[in-house]
């Protein structure tokens, strides 16, 4: 049986212990180290159509890394793209939807599917656009968050509003809406309401938020991943310009 363990206090590795015959799959370039008893191959899981949709939904490469213990038990170390915490999710009776770049690795009994969002969510979404990643099957899925990770429990009658750039993943049974305002009383009808919501978003610094309702879990990270990505792009662009 494959065992996932998060190891390290700051920017942890994902330590994976595999028994002979075990298989896992992970995001492209996640492998840091593996023992010689393991084999690593790049595969296009689910065919070209699924690969294209995963590319749009989660920014993944067309090919995933598949690691198998073919010559005996073996260990490997994986690392997410962004620095931050890891969360090991048990999936089966509970499934999750994932934000951009959250997926790290999963056991072979699971599958990452693509769900189409409604038009309203897709137009405002920074995570996935018209498509969003969803877990299926039974096993474990590992996700990463930029910075520290925190688990929120959403209960009926108490909606939770979260900045979109801090959401890592959420229970698939939860209802969610994407908005540019945190006010439930703000006018939302017609062009005037839309402009008012946009002005409120700009002046408050809220940006896009997700409103969750129902019953389930939401995992959030402490750092704004979108702001970090934009900063990195500017730094790279600036360094190229200065040469």
From TrEMBL:
Domain of life: Bacteria
SUPFAM superfamilies: TRAP-like (SSF51219)
Gene3D superfamilies: Mitochondrial biogenesis AIM24 (3.60.160.10)
InterPro entries: AIM24 (IPR002838), AIM24_sf (IPR036983), Trp_RNA-bd_attenuator-like_dom (IPR016031)
PANTHER family assigned to the protein according to its UniProt record, in alphabetical order: ALTERED INHERITANCE OF MITOCHONDRIA PROTEIN 24, MITOCHONDRIAL
Protein name per the record: TIGR00266 family protein
Organism: Candidatus Accumulibacter aalborgensis
